[in-house]
Amino acid sequence: xxxxxxxxxxxxxxxxxxxxxxxxxxxxxxxxxxxxxxxxxxxxxxxxxxxxxxxxxxxxxxxxxxxxxxxxxxxxxxxxxxxxxxxxxxxxxxxxxxxxxxxxxxxxxxxxxxxxxxxxxxxxxxxxxxxxxxxxxxxxxxxxxxxxxxxxxxxxxxxxxxxxxxxxxxxxxxxxxxxxxxxxxxxxxxxxxxxxxxxxxxxxxxxxxxxxxxxxxxxxxxxxxxxxxxxxxxxxxxxxxxxxxxxxxxxxx
Length: 253
Known about the structure:
Shape: globular
Number of strands: 7
CATH architecture: 3-Layer(aba) Sandwich
Structural class: alpha/beta
CATH class: Alpha Beta
Largest sheet: 7 strands, parallel
Helix content: 40-55%
Number of helices: 8
């Protein structure tokens, strides 16, 4: 029997977290480091990443880059692997929501949304799979959304990518879990992040969203900690291809 005290212990593991400059990505980086992992944060803003490194300490490093730039993927992966070695855990928290209504969606907005929200998680994971396969252990955690299964106004491009994340997660599991690499997704409800600033800036809208949950409140940053650690650790060794909704029961109603 596995010692329950060690199920969530990430000592000796290396994690890469995209979107680590703010919001749930930053929270993920801090939590994984607190559980014993060495963490490399990836985002476009070096100042915010330096702040994250200062907060975590020697167990953290960062790479300032655009994960949607596929032409630079090989170089990016090399930089991510330089501080601590190739990651065992990859958390894809980077994302964009242009909030363009269907009639006003632009080709540029559509392409940027797909490149960052859907293409980047696949190609970055694909690049690190060989090292995970060699160790016989890996964890891929994608970020889904309420819009993985629900349609929201102004969310047609974002929603399409998040629905795609649901299927991408299943397909990753089918392809790689036989090698000890699990692939799962977290589907956050409404959390106070940069991506949801417009929602929380409107108290009435935030209250309506809270009322739609079973718990009757919106998410707090600490609500993501347990689900994330579960999917990144030995605790979830027989769980793969799943989307875990962390939404207070929003999608249950």
